[in-house]
Amino acid sequence: MSATNTGISDRALAIASRVEAFVRETVTPYEMDERRDHHGAPTDELVMEMREKARAAGVLTPHILDDGSHLNQRETAVVLIKSGLSPLGPLACNTMAPDEGNMYLLGKEGSPELKERFLKPMVEGRVRSAFFMTEPADEGGAGSDPSMMQTICRPDGNHWIISGRKTFITGAQGARVGIIMAKAEEGACMFLVDLPDPAIRIDHIPNTIDSSMPGGHATLTIDNLRVPADQMLGEAGEGFRYAQVRLSPARLSHCMRWLGACIRANEIATDYANRRHAFGKPLVDHEGVGFMLAENLIDIKQAELMIDWCASVLDTGSLGTAESSMAKVAVSEALMRIADRCVQVMGGTGVTDKTIVEQVFREVRAFRIYDGPTEVHKWSLAKKIKRDWKAQQG
């Protein structure tokens, strides 16, 4: 297999090209489809309709190959960026969060039995999944600090019993596969479970600023959930390690998808600025507008380079925790600037739902929070700076 001068294989570039064509031609017309839930997210009916078209087009779960292997992270980036050209693209192509991260984790750490039972239907795009880690802050539970986890699990014969509370669990409503983190005497554990289950009760799904993910971000109670011991992922006490296997590339995948969305938003704003006239000339000829679009190009390129650099680190086999933190901060902040400028360039039209620009603005604003807010990642990096300094002092 030959490679281009970018270092990305021809195979990956071809996949990315097919994904881009599918998203632009087939998915974007669905952006005005009214099949939405109470907070504006696409219904599962709409998602599955798009996925059938993606299956027919050969672009369903395009980053996972027919033999079950994954594209590497740099190749995944070129594909996921293209899937993100519409907020509906990752849903249609099955590259969305949290499923993409959950599939990556199971692909890396799941036993053959767990892969067959839980991973296969996810890769086939027939079910959605949820990752149960975050807990209510007002109850002292784990948020950005998973060591505060209060959800507990205890062995009971050939089963484990799980009890606790979780919050902001993306896609829990309607999911068929759950990955639950809980704390045992040995340390953190992860379990694969079938959903729904009567022992898992959804208490509340808030309306949130974002609206791209089916099922919302639920708060729920787990009440004496019985899970067979063979549905534990790996070994007891290894849950935090597995979480890092998932979270480092998952943060980067968010950057990829939302970069695609911001590229499209910038296309829309650029088209608007060239067509709309004010004070005797196109908006783009006014420096205040033209300079914003120029700044967008700079931020887009810097985001692309940061994503590629972090992906290269992950491809070396390193977890890349520090690198993914840097990418999450740099890219999410850059994308926020891009989305904000697009709204500003388009004026009143930019804050309406006539285009996806206002939604991209909302989604990227939420992205600065989930998978760790900017401040947590900076704090983590500052701790690393201190550790490295101490090590250098001998």
TrEMBL record:
Q: Name one Pfam family in it.
A: Acyl-CoA_dh_N
- Can you give the residue ranges of the Acyl-CoA dehydrogenase/oxidase C-terminal domain? 237-384
Q: Name one GO cellular component term.
A: cytoplasm
Report domain Acyl-CoA dehydrogenase/oxidase N-terminal positions: 12-125
Subunit arrangement? Homodimer.
Q: Extract the PANTHER family matched here.
A: ACYL-COA DEHYDROGENASE FAMILY MEMBER 11 (PTHR48083:SF13), MEDIUM-CHAIN SPECIFIC ACYL-COA DEHYDROGENASE, MITOCHONDRIAL-RELATED (PTHR48083)
Q: Which family does it belong to?
A: Belongs to the acyl-CoA dehydrogenase family.
Q: What is this protein called?
A: Acyl-CoA dehydrogenase
Q: Which organism is it from?
A: Sphingopyxis flava
